[in-house]
What we know:
The structure holds two protein chains of two kinds. By secondary structure, chain A is an all-alpha fold. Chain A has helices at residues 2-39, 43-47, 62-69, 72-103, 109-120, 128-138, 144-151, 155-166, 170-178, 183-194, 196-212, 215-220, 229-239, 245-278. Chain B has a two-stranded antiparallel sheet with strand order 1-2. Chain B has twelve helices and two strands, in the order H-E-E-H-H-H-H-H-H-H-H-H-H-H. The radius of gyration of chain B is 24 Å and the shape is globular. The longest helix of chain B is centred in the first third of the chain and has 33 residues, at 2-34. Classes of the chains: A mainly alpha, B mainly alpha.
Amino acid sequence: MITTTSSRMSVIGRVLLYALLLVVLVITFLPFYWMILSSLRLTGDIFSGRASFLPARLTWENYPALLQSTGFLRWAANSLIISVGGTGLGVLLSSMAGFAFAKYEFRGKNLLFALILGSVSIPSLVTLIPVFILMTKLGWINTYRALILPASVNAFGVFFMRRFIAGIPDELLDAGRIDGCSEFQLYYKILFPMMRPGLGALGIFLFLGNWQDYLWPLIMTKSEKMSTLPLGIATLYANQFQIDYGVIMAGAFLATVPIIILFVFLQNQFVAGLTQGMGK
Amino acid sequence: MASSRKWAPYVFVMPFFVLFMLFFAGPILYSMGLSFVKWNGIGAMKAVGLDNYARLLKDTTFHTALKNTLFFSAVYVVSLVTISTTIALLLSSRLVRFRVFFRTAYFLPVTMALSVVAMVFDLIYSRDIGLLNLILGTLHLPADIAWLHSTNTAMWAILGMRLWRASGYYAVIILSGLLQIPREVYEVAMIDGASTLQQVRYVTLPLLRPVLGVVVVMCTIVALKLFDEPWILNKGGPSNSTLTGLIHMYRNGFLFLKLGYGAAISYALSAIMFVFSLLEVRATQGSEA
């Protein structure tokens, strides 16, 4: 008797559970569906008549139109350069500084560390105006430098790598020293292979942040040629009298696909980084 | 060798430190200084003491922006934590199979950039050609609302797209916290006759408090920086109903080139973020943590 009620309960529980999970799943996918669907429709068709879950006429035309008549490819190249540059530099700087803080004793260490720690509580938005002024003075507005260099400074990255490197045994470094490695060889011969999971987790977050950022490129670039994808696609939206939704949705889809692929392949590192406090 | 060990750490720290001073710590101080002057970037700077801050108190547009931002943040944080925790609880159930599939799927919205989300949802919220009104119409509900263009609904519409994008992301963080709670704790509770809901209330949530605390602080800061979607979609409108603190700062600092006043706004916003984070840390990491 008891077993039947409890098993019936668990059947009801299971059905309810999956029903809820499915509802969330549908809500999650609907905007993706709408984006892809709209990217396959002519803007004229989108505007004429009522909306429909399964429109009659679908076409690829928006994709060639996007690539030929907008700066999409240029924006994609800019996004890639900035994201790869900012991420690569960010990961390098964070891991080097993290190494120094984790494995060395040096004069001024605590002071330096306190300075970096203290600055974290101040949101980066107060740096927008002064960095803009600085970039203007340097004549760096509308250059890759203006987008890559500030983005590579990430105090959380230093803390994260410091903690990660602290977990690597000192004996390994000492063994390397006995084998005649210089301190820099220690970094790239011994440490680098060991800290790859940490670099991966940090790298993914920096990459995501760089790829998706809107405000910084908005401030630091002046011409459409230097736009990144999020900014460029938004200008398509803002510039026109009648918004060309079909083309914009094609751009939206193509701008998102690389991150989806990246995530599906690297999701374990993604989640690991997320749960170790990198998602800030 | 011993000497290289002495100067090596400086070489390792130096590149980060130089850029950190140049693009972060330095600007923070410079910005503080700017907030006490009047300057358009070209002419001479004029020291005005606390005038910029005094002006914040009188600037009714700033008050609107602040009210909108705080309203958005409060509703966002409460709903997000509720939704994400619920999703995480569902996913953590022992009855769930294909957990990795669901986790992956729920995480996908965060792969979309905020500006992209804004444009996709513009097409979802559209009155005549939008998905939302199509669904509401199918369900025989009122389907004649221009969600993003009415002062009553615009901020809620932005809230909706933010929640869509972030819920799965935070659910994954909370889920990892949930999965770290040892199973024995639940077994003890079950022996004591606790129902599933009681277990959640008296076992799971208290043990989850530190993780939830981190999530609350993280998403409060994100919410107080709301900018991309209301700016792209509405430039803060209609009639300032989606104007946020950061939009007000952007306008003053970068469009009107009131650099001093812009800096003062950015400091005011930062102070608010700081206070909220502090209060939330106090509240969530209190006695039980």
